[in-house]
Design a protein that fits this description.
Blueprint: E1 7-11, H1 14-19, H2 24-27, H3 55-59, E2 65-69, H4 74-77, H5 84-102, H6 106-119, H7 123-152, H8 160-167, H9 172-190, H10 194-199, H11 222-251, H12 255-280
Antiparallel strand pairs: 1-2
Helix pairs in contact: 5-7, 5-8, 5-9, 7-8, 7-12, 9-11, 9-12, 11-12
Length: about 290
């Protein structure tokens, strides 16, 4: 998700970093531990492994590092290197957001109880089985789409693994915005509970602002929340399509093969967005359970 972030830590001048003899941002000093993920800001090109802990900013003796604003999804649009670990994580993130949403619907409770009754297994075992099933379906569907993409672009020399690795990055905004859409329900239905807590933040019986004993209505009604969720899912879908298009330009030379390779992925995105809309349309339980 950090690849989508509107913030980044970068050096003001790369020359200053190169000429620095101590490299405190990397090694650390008496005021900072240095970068915990062993990144050197002078060569930092994307956010993948940067946690924005700002240790490098505190350590820099030249005041050459800064947090700056950038266009959202900047790293994804400029992505040139595609790694197996990152692409697999992207697909799993998409799978887990689906799984998380599913566990908070009435269907999950029905399936859970039915499987426990049929198998005689305990709640942890059944929970794990259903989680692995959802993950397997999502990852399998994406793998099949990659195989079909390679087949449709046959003659291009691109292998299935390359398609899988590259196009997986386009799923990141799809997963991110569904995650945000899902949590809209919690925020707008439960966020008003922060108001009483402001008066008694430690549970010590305080009433600093006269709100600790009051009960407030949800911030928004369900129809309004559903509209916001729909918009978020659509926005994530649009970003996914745009990023997939950018990635395809780096994979294929011929326009026809590039477009053909995108068709299975776009159909999969439409399917996933439809499932996401179906999930958020279900009665949502506030807490999931085994």
């Amino acid at each position: 998700y950090s690849l989508f972030s509107p913030l980044e830590i970068r050096s003001r001048s790369r020359d200053v970093c190169v000429d620095c003899s101590t490299k405190d941002c990397y090694r650390g000093n008496e005021t900072s531990t240095g970068c915990p993920t062993n990144l050197f800001p002078a060569t930092l090109a994307e956010n993948t492994y940067c946690t924005t802990c700002t240790e490098c900013i505190r350590a820099c003796p030249h005041d050459n590092l800064t947090i700056q604003i950038r266009p959202v999804s900047n790293d994804l649009f400029r992505k040139n290197r595609f790694e197996w670990d990152e692409s697999i994580l992207a697909v799993i993130l998409l799978s887990l957001t689906t799984f998380h949403g599913l566990t908070m619907t009435p269907h999950w409770t029905v399936w859970n109880h039915w499987l426990r009754a049929q198998s005689g297994l305990g709640p942890e075992a059944v929970f794990t089985m259903l989680m692995l099933a959802v993950l397997g379906i999502c990852v399998g569907a994406y793998f099949i789409s990659s195989v079909i993409s390679k087949f449709m672009a046959r003659g291009s020399g691109i292998q299935t693994g390359r398609v899988f690795k590259a196009y997986a990055y386009s799923l990141i905004p799809v997963a991110l915005f569904y995650h945000l859409a899902h949590n809209c329900m919690h925020f707008f239905m439960e966020g008003q509970n922060l108001i009483p807590l402001l008066s008694d933040p430690f549970g010590w019986g305080w009433n600093l602002f006269g709100t600790s004993e009051k009960i407030y209505r949800p911030l928004l009604g369900l129809p309004s929340i559903w509209v916001i969720q729909m918009v978020m899912i659509v926005v994530g879908h649009i970003y996914g399509v745009l990023i997939a298009d950018k990635i395809s330009l780096k994979l294929f030379v011929q326009q026809k093969k590039r477009i053909l390779s995108l068709i299975p992925l776009l159909l999969l995105m439409i399917l996933y967005s439809s499932v996401s809309i179906l999930l958020i349309a279900q009665p949502m339980l506030m807490k999931s359970g085994m």
